[in-house]
Amino acid sequence: MKPEFTERIKPYGPASYTRPRDAATLILLRRNAGRTEVLMGKRNANLVFMPGMFVFPGGRTERADLTAPRTGSLHAGDAERLVKGMGAKGSLRRAEALAMSAIRETQEETGLLIGRQAGSDRVQAPRSWDAFARAGVVPDLSAIRYIARAITPPGRPRRFDTRFFAADARHVFNPDELIANPEEELDEVRWIRFGDFDGIKVPDITVAILDLLADRLKDDPDLSRDMPVPFIRVENRRFLQTFE
Fold this sequence. Notes:
- This protein has one domain: Alpha-Beta Complex (Nucleoside Triphosphate Pyrophosphohydrolase).
- The protein is 25% helix and 28% strand.
- It contains 6 helices and 11 strands.
- The strands form 2 sheets. Strands 1, 2, 3, 4, 7, 8, 9, 10 and 11 form a 9-stranded mixed β-sheet that branches.
- The protein starts with a helix and ends with a strand.
- Keywords: Hydrolase, Magnesium, Manganese, Metal-binding.
């Protein structure tokens, strides 16, 4: 982790302990003519958590993410790290649910479907996955890679144990249907050139994750290799980065 990250962000405290909730987010990358862009959305200024900030699509993992139809498989190394990171309650199904929640939240907040066309029969899915069912699209786990994990420090108004996933925009089924959905907390969504955030409010943790992703892309431009995943958290009131 870059030293300036720990200098900019100080853990709150003392504060009552709030158990972080499982969450996931998706960093969608669009590449064209040597240029890489990332999809981000601007959170409503009235929200308690990260108001007015540009963030990746994402949110809490839901029970329906365990049971919704899917195709493809998580990368074997990613699946192993996700399961191990959940401790005694870890399972492949729960690991898949984390990735599925990143795909679902991306659809809810931006309208984009990460997946493949299903067969002729209508896909049956839980209510929160109805947009996929109506479009006849099945979410594709093989399209995304696990690239980082971060737990919100104690004392924040909301705490999440967030897994960050990345995917190439070529896996988007409906690329021309990008929308902002204020009901899902984002007032604006847009493609932003990777590394060009002048005049844009971005949370420090988001900057840190983008820096980590940039380093990974240098060695693994296609996100195809099995590589360690950075894990950022607070221990003893100090930020710590290890690898899963």
